Amino acid sequence: MTLESTKQEDDMSTDTPTRAPHSDVPTGHKDGGRVGAGLFDPKQLVTSLPDAIRKLDPRVMVKSPVMFVVLVGSVVTTVLALKDPGSWFGWVIAVWLWLTVIFANLAEAVAEGRGKAQADTLRKAKTDTVARRLNDGAEEQVPGTELRIGDLVVCEAGDIIPGDGDVVEGVASVDESAITGESAPVIRESGGDRSAVTGGTKVLSDRIVIKITTKPGETFIDRMINLVEGAARQKTPNEIALNILLASLTIVFLLAVVTLKPFALYAGADKQTSLIVLTALLVCLIPTTIGALLSAIGIAGMDRLVQRNVLAMSGRAVEAAGDVSTLLLDKTGTITLGNRQAAEFVPVRGTTEAEVADAAQLSSLADETPEGRSIVVLAKEKYGLRERHQGELVDAEWVPFTAQTRMSGVDVDGRKVRKGATGSVIAWVQERGGEVAEDAQQLTDAISQAGGTPLLVALEDERGPRVLGVIHLKDVVKEGMRERFDELRRMGIKTVMITGDNPLTAKAIADEAGVDDFLAEATPEDKMALIKREQAGGKLVAMTGDGTNDAPALAQADVGVAMNTGTSAAKEAGNMVDLDSNPTKLIEIVEIGKQLLITRGALTTFSIANDVAKYFAIIPAMFAVAYPGLDKLNIMGLASPESAILSAVIFNALIIIALVPLALKGVQYRPMSADKMLRRNLGIYGLGGLIAPFIGIKIIDLLISLIPGIG
Amino acid sequence: MSPVLADVLQVTALIGALALVHRPLGDYMAAVYSSKRHLRIEKWIYRSVGANPDAEMRWPAYLRGILIFSAVGTLFLYVLQRVQDKLPLSLGFKPITPDQAFNTAASFIANTNWQSYSGEVAMSHVTQTAGLAVQNFVSAAVGMAVAVALVRGFARSRTGDLGNFWSDLVRGTVRILIPLSLIAAIILVACGAIQNFGDIHHITTLTGSKQAISPGAVASQEAIKDLGTNGGGFFNANSAHPFESPNGLSNLLEIFLLLVIPFSMPRTFGKMVGSIKQGYAIVAAMGIVWFGAVIAVTWLEYAHPGTASHLAGGAMEGKEQRFGEGASSLFSVSTTMTSTGSVNSFHDSFSGLSGGVLLLGMMLGEITPGGVGSGLYGMLIMAIIAVFLAGLMVGRTPEYLGKKISTREIKLAACYILITPALVLIGTAMAIALPDGKEAMTNIGAHGFSEVLYAYTSASNNNGSAFAGFGANTPFFNTTLGLCMLLGRFLPMVFVLALAGSLAEQKPVPETAGTLRTEKPLFTGLLVGTLLIVTGLTFFPALALGPLAEGLSS
User: What is the bridge-based pairing of β-strands A559-563 and A576-578?
Assistant: First the structure.
């Protein structure tokens, strides 16, 4: 690189910011903290139809008691229609009851269908590979499916890794896009927290030896396929509880309808209460809307996580995420940007800020660490010092930063400039017989107490070696974190920052970020103890982690999100894996969990509130002949008894399809207090559920009565 | 003073008195059930039955205590009626028939006090005092014990212990019901109610006909009849009889007695779970429904169309003629909504729609404010259902008072809410479909249906009041209604206690900003809404064919 060209480039770029510290703010929150979701394409309804029909198998249907009752009702009405083929009414009711069941299956099929597409992509990655197994140092070719735990396999550039394992030898760059969708390769090396490799990913360079840790068929990619396909789906505790309540409501309505027959016989309304009409009434009353959409809601919840590249190993974990009341967040990478950055230059007595800045920049040019880069950038931005390049200075002797010397600098034009850790620089100055300014110690102490890291800048020139000033390195809190934590607080979630820093530093950052609490100088044992303490108080704890030493805590936490970059021990211990390895995502996971529960509650409320209108449609239709006074209950003014019952049945079926997009997308969720949220959702789904069917049934009745021969 | 103004003053005085008393009474009851001390008489009782009052019980043990105690009580009461002719003070009455004796025993054990007999011409002094009156106390105390056990389930953590049944039973009787009814009885005597063990007076009336005037320990039984939400009158005419309720003041006092413990128990609950506000949310839900019904029935009765009604200023047939429309409506709503069943007017004579309101009052499960104890536990179960339905909408798995409502809890609550609708609907359907039931009916059409529906609703919900209109003293009705009363009383208790045990074992979930606030008006509204919708949906067809068909036809 020539001097001129660099200069030119540099001049041109002075007014464009070189650093973008907030480039890795959490994604998916650009629209004001709302959990968004994938789009629903009506075409999916058509493509999922065969699956929906396949699900009519009674052995499958019986798992949802509510819809099973509808299935039985469909069969009964069909038989009755066959016995009296001349009655159009029986046929129409039978058809709409079948449609009700099919619509319910369709909702589930559509939800599953979206997972299937992802599973297919994954399956492509899981091609049967040939593994190069090491057998006493000799290589042999075996199919990937024959690998056993503990086998050692060799992978070189271009090879597909045959199974999950840990790198035990070598370093390689690996393309994990098959799993994460992220095309940039990642480094995997033996030892430490970056040793885990996943079967199905591709080695791009170098050679590694992998120790297999998972049986074939149980690998990460296998589990992922099962999860997104819904094959591994089990009902979650809350889903089971809701199912019980729905089943008991179904029994209540069954009782109400069955006993209605003797009541009707007594009232002399035998003809109006045929088995077909009673079946229609029963289907309208039992909570079919939520019964039909319940499993779709659950699948869609998992799916929303998958869309954010998070794999939940169980639905239970997603539900627990909604209940979390304590979030443990690692400081580095979650709350702060990964690295400390220079924030200011503080001169000792007798020097100026500009002098310190100049020396600091000069001494940092040979420091390629992010901290070093940030010093150069700060000097340029704040003091207008043009960034000089190493090639610019002739005869300069560069002293690069090393972990041993903990200093960097340059010797040029008879001047020696150094910057580095306090102790190292003081030693350097004193070694050369120089004086350390009296206030240097005070300044560094002040910075430490404020939570920063001080670096000293020293210069040796004709006036002798001396300390010029201090660089204040600071953890930079990610943009928008304070607002996020405020939101969490409003949702009733306490945030605890975990850091290895000393308590002073930790407190300063905690205050700046606005977390509720912090754990300083945290060891894995401390973390574990904190989780247990919170859980003992009845709280649910969520955390992220990637290291092997995080594994016990990840397993202990109610929601443990392991980073995909982490060790296989961590991934095994957690109940979720974040493929993007973005710890901030924990907040989104909590929101998705809440959204899932809210959607369930909202549709249950809606479903039950709907029944009021259906009674007002059907009861007068059945009994107005026997007791004319009951015609006053026909407040919708429905055209005829037949059209009234039919309208209620049709509304009941169509509302399922109408709500499929909502079930898949989830109801809109905004962080707010429980009170506000309840008020809002009760208004929309409770009151809405009360009113909507009155309008819907009336409209359908108007349309039906237009058909000649009916009404 | 216009009748309407009198009614308004009456209701205001009643609410004022309840507001005044609920606090000391609620706090006192909390202290009684939390106290570690035993009174001398209590120690004597424990020794004589061999119970250890300090032994903590888990829910199966607690339930066992209730079932054994109640089974022994039923048997004793049954035998007492069957042999009353051989005992002293028999007044010459014959033994009660087996089916009626079963019905009556079930009725008084289950705190229902459905009566298929007329007290003054069937039951001897011994049966009335040693049998029926004793059960008036202890069956009420059993209800309160179960409520307290459930409250302890909420208040305690990480233990399965729910307290001691024997201690709760004895304390409820000795420290709460006896002293209160003593005070009430003295006031009633002061008002003119009778209290003696004399013989029947045979008198000749002014018109020359013979009349038998029955004596008895009326005032004391009257006090506990209302205080313990029992309802079984000494006389067939119940509180409309001048010996039971001599004047307007005693009428109001009796209404007050009906309501005072049920409306004070939420305070006890709040005190015991450590948040008075939670108690107020519950009492507010109870009060709103009760007050709404009072307004509705009173208005419907005043507004009843027809010449006779207009001349009388309201539908006066069958009403308490001495105190008027408002006092009748107020009494009727209060007695149907407290599972008491004592009456000062004929519920059968209320207009179709207000009859429907009275029915609905029982169908709600007797929880607004409900029977002593049973009102509170029933409302808490409904609160659990409401929390579960709406709690999901705040994005957390539902919790109430720091306890998670998950599979086990919802299973038990769902079983609880299934029982009474099943008994009411199946019972009514059987009665109108089977010849045994049909033959006893004296009215036809919608009104006849309402009468049968009322009987089974009243029995299954342990109310005990009747719509009359059919001869209930038949083997069919005595047996089926007796079963409804027993099942409607004790099956729910099984689920309540199991639930209490499950709650007590949990560790509490701390309250955060994300927790559904169950002490706020919004929750009270939600609770009322859930209660009305769930009950309404269950019983709408039945109500439509009875009271609505009758009331809307005019």
Answer: parallel
Longest dimension (CA), chain A: 118
| A250-297: pLDDT as tens digits | 999 999 999 999 999 999 888 888 999 999 999 999 999 999 999 899
Touching check for B532 and chain A: CB below 8 Å? no
Q: What is the pLDDT of residues B300-349, one digit of tens each?
A: 888 877 666 666 666 677 777 777 788 889 999 999 999 988 888 888 88
Q: Which residues of A contribute to the annotated binding site for Mg(2+)?
A: 546, 550
Retrieve residue B477's tokens: 């009705």
Per DSSP, B240 falls in state G
User: Is the dihedral angle over the CA atoms B469, B295, B536, B306 positive or is it negative?
Assistant: positive
How far is the C-alpha of B519 from the C-alpha of B276, rounded, in Å? Answer: 9
Question: Which residue's entry shows tokens 């439509």?
Answer: B544
CB pair distance less than 8 Å for A266 and B549? no
* Chain B residues touching residue A322 (CB < 8 angstroms): 395-397
Convert A474-535 into a string of H (helix), E (strand) and C (coil).
EEEECCCHHHHHHHHHHCCCEEEEECCCCHHHHHHHHHHHCCCEEECCCCHHHHHHHHHHHH
Mutate one of A266, A558, A616 to test the B interface: name it (highest B CB count within 10 A): A266
**pLDDT band, very low/low/confident/very high, at A531 (cuts 50, 70, 90):** very high
Per the listing, tokens 């627990």 go with A320
The pair of three-digit structure tokens given for residue B13, joined into one six-digit string: 């005085």
Decide: B334 and B366 in contact? Cβ < 8 Å. Answer: no
Burial of A245 (0-12, 13-18, 19+ CB in 10 A): buried
- In chain B, where are the structural domains located? 3-553
| Cβ within 8 Å of residue B462, ≥6 positions away | B110, B111, B112, B339, B366, B371, B374, B485, B488, B489
Distance from CA of A420 to the nearest CA of B (A): 46
Q: Distance (Å, rounded) from C-alpha A487 to C-alpha B130?
A: 65
The predicted pLDDT at position B311 comes to 64
- Element housing B168 (H / E): helix B165-171
**What is the CA angle B211-B214-B216, rounded to 5?**
170
CB atoms within 10 A of CB A388: 20
pLDDT at A395: 76
Confidence of residue A12 (pLDDT cuts 50, 70, 90): very low
- Give yes or no for a contact between A484 and A25, defined as CB atoms under 8 angstroms apart: no
User: CB-based contact (8 Å) between B508 and chain A?
Assistant: yes
Asked if the interface predicted TM-score (ipTM) of this complex is over 0.90, the answer is yes
Kind of pairing, strands A541-545 and A202-203?
A: unpaired
The upper half-sphere exposure of residue B199, i.e. CA atoms within 13 Å in the direction of its Cβ, equals 5
For residue B23, which amino acid is it? Answer: R
Q: In whole angstroms, what is the distance from residue A554 CA to residue A556 CA?
A: 5
CB B353 within 8 A of CB B243: no
Extract the annotated binding site of A for ATP. Answer: 367, 371, 401-408, 419
| pLDDT for the residue numbered A5 | 39
Distance (Å) from the C-alpha of residue B407 to the closest C-alpha of chain A?
A: 4
* Residue A465 three-state SS: strand
Token pair recorded at residue B489 = 């009383």
